Amino acid sequence: MYGLIIILLPLIAGYLLHVTRANLLRGVARMLSALVYIILFFMGTSLAFLDNLSSNLLTIFHTALISMLCIIACSLLAFWLLEKRVPWHHPHKQQALPSRLHMALESLKLCGSVLGGFLLGLSQWSVLRHASTISEYALMLMLFLVGIQLRSSGMTLGQITLNRRGMLVAAVSLCSALIGGMLAALWLDLPIKTGLALASGFGWYSLSGILMTESFGPVIGSAAFFNDLLRELITIMLIPLLISRQRSMTLGLSGATSMDFTLPILQRTGGMEIVPAAIVHGFIMSLLAPILIALFSA
Residues 271-292: pLDDT tens digits? Predict the structure, then answer.
């Protein structure tokens, strides 16, 4: 119950605060970016204080890989069936792509933050033992800022319900990811709720790793981070290859990042027609991610 409160209250409080000034929103974005690096740094620090460190690292990467494979496989199948039943026809002219290498490196910089915290944590410096308390307060501030950003995106309930394709893709994204999470839990011999929580990041690695660390500890939290990071890296590579034939699939694989990080590549490859659905889909998945992780972690 405590975990649910510290997640939902800051998120709702931020969403209720209507910020319109461009300079304030830019400040929110910069602060949010800094907080992500800070919290991931302390997540790496907490990891370094684990007992049986070498065996735990193997567990992290094994859990992340199996989870990612199950979720991606279920999503690919679900969206292939969706395109068969309800094809998405939109003529578009593919534009020059943003550098996929640059986008991949941006994601990998977050890995560097975790690695930096981990290496410093190996020193066993006593001050770093308070890392979990610091990251908890930073998490609450981060969720407050996320709520402000969601409100500033301009999406209303009316706009969400009017975009049928965005909602349809979001529904399939949700169901296929959760099914993949359950399969991963059975494969890894984890509780079903843990598998569902692992699947509920929807590619939002900077958030899922933090929230899962708060609820399940640094092993599962780190696995959640790498699970969602791998999903996003694969999505970046697949979008240009699939978007001409599988528009719903490319949008669905983007998960919560379809309204920010992967939006430029979706727009340039799929045309402006995909943008409204991408924003609606990303908004819904971004809103669901912290709520579902909190519920499955309760």
Answer: 767 878 888 888 889 889 888 9
pTM: 0.74
- 255: exposed, middle or buried (C-beta count within 10 Å: 0-12, 13-18, 19+)? buried
Contact assessment for residue 286 and residue 262, using Cβ atoms and an 8 Å cutoff: no
Tokens of 165: 């394709």
Question: For residue 50, is it left (φ>0), alpha (ψ between -120 and 50) or beta?
Answer: beta
CB 192 within 8 A of CB 89: no
Nearest CA among 69, 91, 73 for reference residue 81: 73
d(CA 208, CA 206): 6
The tokens for 178 are 């959760």
Residue with tokens 């990998």, as numbered in its chain: 108
- Distance, in Å, from the CA atom of 129 to the CA atom of 136, rounded to the nearest integer, reads 13
Dihedral sign (CA 170, 175, 179, 182): positive
The pLDDT assigned to 114 comes to: 77
Q: Specify the amino acid at residue 237.
A: M
Residue bearing tokens 């740094």: 41
